[in-house]
Amino acid sequence: MTSPIAGGVDCDLHPAVPHLTSLLPYMNDYWRDQVTTRGMTDLVSQSYPTHSPISSRPDWRPAQGKPGADLADMQKQALDRFGVRFGICNPLYGVQMVFSEDMQDAFCRALNDWLAKEWLDKDDRLRGSIVIPTQSVEKSVAEIERCAGDRRFVQVLMLVMGDMPLGKRAYWPIYATAERLGLTIGIHAGSAYHNPPTSIGWGSYHIEDYVAQATAFQTQLTSLIVEGVFARHPNLKMVMLESGFTWLPAYLWRLHKFWRGIRMETPWVDRAPLEIVRSNIRFSLQPVDAPPDPATLNRLFDHMQSDELLLFSTDYPHWQFDGDEVLPPGLSPDLVRKIMIDNPFATYGRLQAVKETTP
Amino acid sequence: MNVQFRPESSASVSIETAIADCDIHPARATKDELYPYLAKRWHSHLETYGIQAYHGMMEGPPYPKAQPNASRRDAWPPEGGPQGSSLSFMQKQLLDPYNVALGVLNPLASGQGLRNQDLAGALCSAINDWQIEKWTSKDKRLKASIVVPNEDGVAAAAEIRKRAGDPNFVQVLLLSRNVEPLGQRRYWPVYEAAQEIGLPVGVHAFGFGGNPLTPSGWPSFYIEEMVGHAQCQQTVLASLVLEGVFERFPKLKMVMIEAGFGWAPSLAWRLDKSFERLHSEVPHLKRKPSEYIRDHVWWTTQPMEDPERRDHLFQTIEWIGWDRLLFATDYPHWDFDEPSRVLPAGVSEANREAFYLGNAKKLYGMV
Hints:
Radius of gyration of chain A: 19 Å
Number of strands of chain B: 8
CATH architecture of chain B: Alpha-Beta Barrel
Structural class of chain A: alpha/beta
Strand content of chain B: 5-15%
CATH superfamily of chain B: Metal-dependent hydrolases
Number of helices of chain A: 12
Helix content of chain A: 25-40%
CATH superfamily of chain A: Metal-dependent hydrolases
Distance between the termini of chain A: 30 Å
Strand content of chain A: 5-15%
Number of strands of chain A: 8
Oligomer: heterodimer
Number of domains of chain B: 1
Number of domains of chain A: 1
Distance between the termini of chain B: 31 Å
Largest sheet of chain A: 8 strands, parallel
Strand order of the largest sheet of chain B: 1-2-3-4-5-6-7-8
Radius of gyration of chain B: 20 Å
Shape of chain B: globular
Strand order of the largest sheet of chain A: 1-2-3-4-5-6-7-8
């Protein structure tokens, strides 16, 4: 086992909204009325059914309520346990699934205000991601601008499976706003279920959806690179969250090969895909989709050809590891320091700013 | 892969050791070349309504290729017709100079992936007859693939059984993108019939099944479609494993064609890890997903994985198995892999032989 070191950044924590009614205090009269008179149910996504084994480690599952809903549990089981200096909250509440952009907007605003008040206000280590109503780029930009004044928000959060490929030009105002305000773009596993959850249609099983998340990240990375997002926004950092990373080397071999062959189709792509990934894309550590065998893992790290790509994450309360084995076995002390401290601070501009002003 | 024009290509290289080419695409020289194999009713149907696939274009692909017919610019036959439509030119440009001992034909524009299932069935059957008459009966090195109306399992199984025991055919061919993921039950009659007549099922990257090409909708560019074949194929394989296809058809062999193989280890690890957590949802699986993959799946090599460092390639192949790779050129397509340049130095003679010929001969029953 590789031991964590103190002072790290946990880049993927999931505080749970207990129920849609928990957001009512953060909605205006109209939306409170909509939720109650229409008898709306809780917005739990099929991506993370509450009782699915991956949605919570067995020993982190509370006696009552949703895993991740209790701050004291998160402190004890993750923040204190792994001695982190900061933990970034990425709420996965299923607000993206609704089809009305007005409703999605109202729910995102409520969710962001709820996060600030019920979590960020209660533990200085916590930082937040701004959840945006991606069906409307205009409303998304407005929500980023509304929240960004609170420096505890360090990132904008989007789902890996949404309405359109994320590189599409329609989304670029979101990226421009994030870059201007010093926020990263976090892309997290999960689907709005506005499209079938795989590129070949609907499967039968939850496990199929979960396995497919990794392929969704691959298609998004292609879209972001070939549409030219990073030619326009060379300083924008994007973080793939709960994406897995062991697929990256072979994925890049293929993308690089085709880019070399048909780059005339996308002449604005000004650097090789591998180079773009190295400078602009980061990946959360968990899940580690590899055998628990140091030799294989170290080969994989060698195939990645960079030690700057991975950011420490527990994926709390999801079940990615047991006990304290949050870091895979066989990592060198240097790599542990990079993954836990150096890489996250280099990625999140707003954390770096705090680091530079406080001892 | 970037070599697009080689004026002397047919004569410039000669390979002394025989190879198998497990992905060759034969084409029709003229639009009506299939008519002798089709009932009259379909001639007028095709003239009137054309071919309607699961996308909007009446002619050509929705994502324009980077060159005509996605083919090498030196592959136009001298007698006319599209690339890949002339046996004599294929012999001159591919089979003779590269010493191809076994060439597996995979017709792509075949009738698979059409909305009208009666037309799909008629076209597929015609293509199967045409492969024998125009290709395999005229050059014994060539073997055909049974194409089937993929969305109609019953008709597909009947077409497969019709070809049972015919030595012209060495596999059943499906495309990767269908109306549903290929593990779904509507496709099981294909696997049942293939297992019964003892042929592997090849799944070639490509096709349109009506679903957006990504789980976030339709991408913009041809390169996204091309790179995306690897993601589609991973989803195909996950579906086959998780639906229990290999549990139900224990002798079934599947070939992943033209979608890469470098992604296989990571997919297998992810499947295994997820299965550890979620096995109660899929109790019909008796073994780890990676074990089904190891026992039931082969991979064609083109487009060859091309990392900067060859040790990365070798390590990846070791994770998959040297006994599971089948060399392919993808002739006459533009991303043709030249046999003499595909495998870096440093491979044992036994592995080299398996890669270029031995695995294919064994799989396709040529020994």
